[in-house]
Specification:
The chain is built from nine helices and 14 strands. β1 and β2 form a beta hairpin. 22% of the residues are buried.
C-alpha cells in the first residue's frame, strides 16, 4: 500500500469530515435553541408570577382610574353617555383608585356615589340625580355582591327579618343580637301572641343584605323573653339553611304610613297633531295605608273592595318625609282573611324629582 493511501485512511475522507462538522453544528444549534427557550420560559414564569402577586395587584388596584378603564367599564355595564360622564366626573373629582377594582367593593363604591348625590342635591340637579341612580343600578346589577351568606352566624345585627303568617300578613322583626347560642329578634307590637309560632316550631324568614340581596332562612323557635325595652323577643337557633332569592328589579322600602287616594278619569287631549293622555283625579278622597314603595310602584292597604285594572291617584309620604303624588294602575288586588284589601300598584305617571326622592330613600342617600 502506498504512502498516499495510508495517509488517506488515517485522515478520513473530506465527506466524513464535513458530516462530523455538520453534526457538531446541529448539536450546538439545538442546545442554543433549548437554552433560549428555557430563558424565555423562566422570564415568562417570573412575569406571570409578578402579575399575579399581591404586590402587583395592590399596585394596580391603587393606581388612578384612566379613561381606558372608564370606557371598558361603560361597555361592560351598557352605560349611556350621561351615566358615563357622571362616572368620569366621580373618578376625576374624588380621585378614585382603579374603578375596575373599586366596583367589586359595594361599600366603598356606594360611599363615592353617595357623595356625588349630595353634590347634585345641593344644586337641585334632578337630571344629574336621575342619571346617577341609573348608573348605580347598572353597576350593582353587573357587579353583584360575591360574599354569599351560608350560615346565620354571619347575619349582621339590625338586619330586618320578614315573617309572613298568611297571605297578605307580613311582619318585620329586627335582629338585636347574634351570639353563639342563636339569634334574638325583636317582635313588633302588631304581631299578636296568637300569631306567634310556638317554641320548637319550624319557621321561615326572609331578610335582605344592605345591597338588597334577599335571602330565605329556615330555622326553629327556641323560646320568648322580655327585652330591655319591654318588648317581646324571639330566640331562634342558628341555621345553615340559608338560600339566596331572586333580587327584585326595583328595590322596595317598607313604609306603613297613612295616605289618601282618588279614582281617576282618563281623557285624551289633542294639541295640533299631538295627543296626550290626561289623568284627572276625582274630588272624593279615600283613606289608606302606604305599605311599601319602589320607583316602579307601591302596595296600598284599603278597606274598599277595589278591583284590578283601574287607575288610581295617590297622595302620600313616598319618601317617608314629604307628601308627593303619582298616578298608577292597580295590577292586582289581594283580599286578606280580615277583610282588608291590598292593592298592588304600578306607577304610570310620576315626576322625576319624586322618583329621585324615592331612590334617595331606598339607597339611604338622604340620611
Amino acid at each position: 500500500m502506498s504512502n498516499a493511501s495510508l495517509l488517506l485512511l488515517q485522515s478520513g475522507s473530506p465527506l466524513q469530515a464535513r458530516l462530523e462538522v455538520n453534526v457538531f453544528a446541529v448539536i450546538i444549534i439545538a442546545l442554543s435553541i433549548i437554552f433560549v427557550l428555557a430563558v424565555i420560559y423562566i422570564i415568562s414564569r417570573v412575569i406571570t408570577n409578578y402579575l399575579h402577586s399581591p404586590a402587583y395587584i395592590e399596585k394596580k388596584k391603587n393606581r388612578p382610574t384612566s379613561q381606558k378603564d372608564i370606557t371598558e367599564l361603560s361597555t361592560t355595564c351598557g352605560l349611556v353617555k350621561e351615566e358615563r360622564d357622571i362616572l368620569s366626573q366621580i373618578c376625576s373629582v374624588h380621585k378614585t383608585p382603579n374603578i375596575i377594582y373599586l366596583v367589586h367593593d359595594y361599600y366603598a363604591l356606594n360611599e363615592v356615589l353617595k357623595e356625588c348625590f349630595k353634590t347634585f342635591d345641593a344644586t337641585s340637579n334632578e337630571s344629574g340625580k336621575s342619571h346617577l341612580f341609573g348608573l348605580r343600578k347598572k353597576l350593582f346589577k353587573v357587579f353583584k355582591q360575591k360574599d354569599v351568606i351560608k350560615h346565620s352566624k354571619f347575619i349582621s345585627v339590625n338586619t330586618i327579618f320578614t315573617f309572613t303568617i298568611e297571605k297578605g300578613f307580613h311582619y318585620k322583626l329586627k335582629l338585636v343580637e347574634n351570639n353563639t347560642d342563636g339569634l334574638i329578634l325583636s317582635v313588633p307590637p302588631l304581631l299578636k301572641n296568637a300569631d306567634l309560632p310556638k317554641p320548637l316550631e319550624k319557621i321561615n324568614f326572609i331578610f335582605e343584605l344592605e345591597d338588597g340581596t334577599p335571602y330565605n332562612i329556615e330555622t326553629r323557635v327556641v323560646r320568648y323573653q322580655q327585652g330591655k325595652e319591654n318588648d317581646t323577643q324571639m330566640i331562634i337557633v342558628h341555621s345553615d339553611k340559608v338560600a339566596t332569592l331572586q333580587k327584585r328589579e326595583q328595590e322596595r322600602v317598607e313604609l306603613n304610613l297613612p295616605c289618601q287616594f282618588h279614582s281617576v278619569k282618563v281623557a285624551t287631549e289633542v294639541t295640533g297633531k299631538k295627543e296626550s293622555i290626561q289623568y284627572i283625579p276625582s274630588e272624593k278622597t279615600y283613606e289608606g295605608t302606604l305599605e311599601d314603595i319602589s320607583t316602579g310602584g307601591c302596595r296600598l292597604v284599603s278597606t274598599l273592595p277595589i278591583k284590578a285594572d283601574q287607575y288610581i291617584y295617590i297622595e302620600g309620604p313616598f319618601n317617608a318625609k314629604q307628601t308627593d303624588v303619582a298616578v298608577g294602575t292597580i295590577v292586582r288586588t289581594t283580599k286578606r282573611s280580615d277583610g282588608i284589601f291590598i292593592l298592588h300598584i304600578r306607577f304610570l305617571k310620576i315626576d322625576t324629582k319624586v322618583v329621585n326622592r324615592i331612590n334617595a330613600m331606598v339607597s339611604k342617600y338622604d340620611e
